[in-house]
Amino acid sequence: MPVFGMCYGFQAMVQALGGTVAHTGLGEYGSTQADVTDTGSTLFNGQPESQSVWMSHGDSVTEAPDGMRVTASTPGAPVAAFEDDDRRLYGVQWHPEVMHSTFGQRVLENFLRKGASLESEWTAGNVAEELVEQVRAQVGSDRVLCALSGGVDSAVAAAIVQRAVGDQLTCVHVDHGLLRAGEREQVESDFVDATGVDLIVYDAREQFLSALAGVTDPETKRKIIGREFIRAFEQAARDVVEDRGDDEHPVRWLVQGTLYPDVVESGGGEGAANIKSHHNVGGLPDDLQFQLVEPLRSLFKDEVRQVGLELDVPEAIVWRQPFPGPGLGIRIIGEVTADRLDILRRADAIAREELTAAGLDRDIWQCPVVLLADVRSVGVQGDGRTYGHPIVLRPVSSEDAMTADWSRVPYDVLATISGRITNEVREVNRVVLDVTSKPPGTIEWE
Ligand SMILES: Nc1ncnc2c1ncn2[C@@H]1O[C@H](COP(=O)(O)OP(=O)(O)OP(=O)(O)O)[C@@H](O)[C@H]1O
What we know:
The protein is of the alpha/beta class. Helices cover 35% and strands 23% of the residues.
C-alpha cells in the first residue's frame, strides 16, 4: 500500500517506523523556505532546490527511520521530507495541499502518479457516465423529485438524474420572489431547453411577501424564509406525488446536490436524516418520506462544473457564483417589500452585467449588492434635492468562502456601475463600496 504522510501524518510515520520526533523548541508556522536536497527524487523530480512551503509544526523529525532517503530540510526541521521507493513510503513535514506551498500540487501528483502508479483516468466524460449509471441502478423505475434552485449543485445533480431516468424526474423550482433578475427564466427556459427536464415552477411570491411584511430583524427574516420555503416545497412535493406518481411508480426519491465537502463536514453519514444540514433555506423536514439520491457526493465544486459542462448544463448556470438560498431577502437591510425588491433587483442586475462585461466573473467569488432601505441620504439630481437609498457593493475574492478579501475591482468598472445604478435606478442616489475582509465582516450583510 503506497503511503504519503503530511505534517502530523509525516511524524506518525516516523514514530511507527522507528525514527525520532523530538521537541526541539524550533516550531515553524506559515510560509517557510525548504531546501530540496535531492531534486532527482520521486516527489521533487525536476523542481527547484529552494521552494516555499506552508508549515504548521511544533515538534520536528530529527532522525529519519532506517531505509528512508531524506530529500528536504528546513531551518526548523532537519528531516522535512523523505521517501523509500521500494516500500512506496513518502512524506513531507509541510502541507502540500495548500496553495502557499508553491510546488505542493506537483508533489501530490508525483506521489499519486509515480509513487502509487495511479493512471490519470478522471475525465468529466467518464465520471458523468458512471454517475448516470449509478443513479439508474439506484432508482429503477420509481419517480424522483428534485428541488432546483438555479445554482450549480442542484442543476448538475438534476442533469445527471435526468440523463439517467428521463421523465421519471420532476424538478420543482420555488419562486419565492427573492430571486434575482432573470433567474426564474434561466431555470424555466435555459435549463429545460438544455436538458428537457419536467419542471414545475411553484409561484410562492405572495406567500413569502406577506409572511415577511413588517419584519426587519435579520434572524427573524431568515427563519420566516426557511419556514415558508419548507411549506412551499412540501406543497409542491404533494402536488408532484399526486400528479406524477402512481401505485406502481411512487415518488420515492429526492435529489440532493450534496458535494464531497458537505459529506466531510457532516461526518459522512447515510440516509434521510442527513438531508443537507447546512441548507441555507432552512433544511427540508425529516418527515418528508423520501430516500436520497446524491450523485455529487464524491465530487468537489470544480469537478461538478466540469461534469455540468459535459452534460450541456447552460454555462450561465455552471459558472454561476454562489448565491444564498434566502436570496435578495437578506440583502435588503430593513423590511422586505415588493418595491424594495424591485429596486435591489435592478441595481443588482446592473452590477452583475458590468462585472461580467469587465471579465471579472471568475476572479470574484461573489458580489452581493445590498440595499440600505431604512437609510436615506441626501443627493442632488437635476435641479432638485433627493433623499434616496444607498446601495452597497460587496465584491469579495475567496477560495472557499471561509475567509474572503474584498476584491480590488478596477476604479473605472466601479465608476461605470455607480453611474449606471444612480442613473437607471431612480430610488438610489449613492453607491458605496464595502472594503472589509472576512473575518471580521461576513460576505453577506445579514
Ligand atoms: N428557490 C428554490 N427552489 C427550489 N429549490 C431550492 C431553491 N432554493 C434552494 N433550493 C434547494 O435547496 C438546496 C440548498 O440551497 P442553498 O441555497 O444552500 O444552495 P447550494 O447548496 O449552493 O446548492 P445550489 O448550488 O443547488 O443552489 C439547493 O441545492 C436546492 O435543492
